[in-house]
Amino acid sequence: MRARAAAKPEESPEENPEYGGVNARAAAEQINSRRAAEQEESPVPRRSEWTTKNRNRSKKMKIAIVGASGAVGQEFLKILEERALPIDELLLFGSERSAGRTYTFRGREIPVRLLQHNDDFRGVDFALTSAGAGTSREFAETITRYGTVMIDNSSAFRMEADVPLVVPEVNPEDAKNAPRRIIANPNCTTIQMVVALNAIERLSHITRVHVSTYQSASGAGAAAMAELEAQHAELCAGKEPTVSKFAFQLAYNVIPHIDVFTENDYTKEEMKMFNETRKIMHSDVRVSATCVRVPVMRAHSESVWLETERPVSVEEARAAFAAAPGVVLMDDPAAKVYPMPLFVAGKDPVYVGRIRRDLTSDNGLTFWCVSDQIRKGAALNAVQILETLL
Q1: Is 188 tagged catalytic?
Q2: What is the pLDDT of residues 199-225, one digit of tens each?
Q3: CA–CA separation, 137 vs 18, rounded Å?
Q4: Would you say residue 272 has pLDDT above 50?
Q5: Which domains does the chain have, with CATH numbers?
Q6: By the number of CB atoms within 10 A of the CB, which of 214, 239, 260, 350 ranks highest?
């Protein structure tokens, strides 16, 4: 059935050798098991080791989540439940549609309050916000008025000079210079790329990057995931697929269009990767991106080509990735072992594989990386920012 265009563009089998079969699944399980066993030694721990720096670990904190009912808000709840943060009180905020709902946290039922311009944030130490750029701009002063540090997942403040843009594996010190008490969480595609790029940057300065992203439906929210599921069901039933969230039918299709196009014919999503990478890495690196929506539910993939000032061997790169905080090396292509959303969804690290010399540049390398964009690409990164401040 022919794909039908939407009225508006998008905003913001185990034995089959083609998919790696049981070899890749077994390798992924072994890697994840080993990673879990080594967490206490990891430079970016799953549990809070950052808290010994500047604050007494026994001090109880008051934390707020804004946008608690959304996909990232729900992931905030899961991650805070998992980690050993000394939270005395958790406040949940949302829109009129979600106000009144309750969620369980550490055995207690917590109601969602309506986000309003009032004194609800008095005494709150940190606010994790993921309710859209418009809401973040409108409520930033209300949230930070009494000293609350706002860690914002939206695009509202990312490129403002007096707001740090932070990925803790790359530039944790930037989080400590936030004069407006606002710290921005980068775009999901940027986060996973710079975590990987940083490993190579430590070997030789990266001058250029070309990247193609393969972004899952969940990057566009819960409604997009539901639409993809509905489209598969409708097409299998011989019906016309419902198309509203994306520019075109996503099921059995790929869409080279995420966010709106700018004057230079790159989309805003693609320009985020250019601008945010330079700010996070304090670098003059140039990034050319093509961002593509693919019919995958969760976890983004990226094909990355980079050029360095001096040649970096594949062996050097593998060793650097293996030692890098927040990175898991998954690179044995002969055994069909490489990262895929199938194995990575729901995991914390950035998985890197398919590392090889570029055939067109003596100083070029290429690699493939996959990461869960709701966890590391959003909620986990924000919580790690919080932990760097403790």
Answers
A1: yes
A2: 999 999 999 999 999 999 999 988 999
A3: 46
A4: yes
A5: 17-29+190-377 (3.30.360.10), 45-156 (3.40.50.720)
A6: 350
Residue 45's pLDDT band, with cuts at 50, 70 and 90, is very low
What's 350-376 look like in SS3? Answer: EEEEEEEECCCCCCEEEEEEEECCCHH
Q: At what angle do helices 188-201 and 314-323 cross, to 10 degrees?
A: 120
pLDDT at 28 over 70: no
Q: What mean pLDDT comes out for the span 49-57?
A: 39
Amino acid found at 339: P
Dihedral angle sign, alpha carbons of residues 87, 89, 93, 98: positive
pTM: 0.86
C-alpha–C-alpha distance, residues 158 and 197, integer Å = 19
Q: Please give the pLDDT value at position 298.
A: 96
Cα 46 from Cα 280, distance rounded (Å) = 22
Q: Choosing from 117, 188, 232, 282, which is the catalytic residue?
A: 188
Q: Is 257 a catalytic residue?
A: no
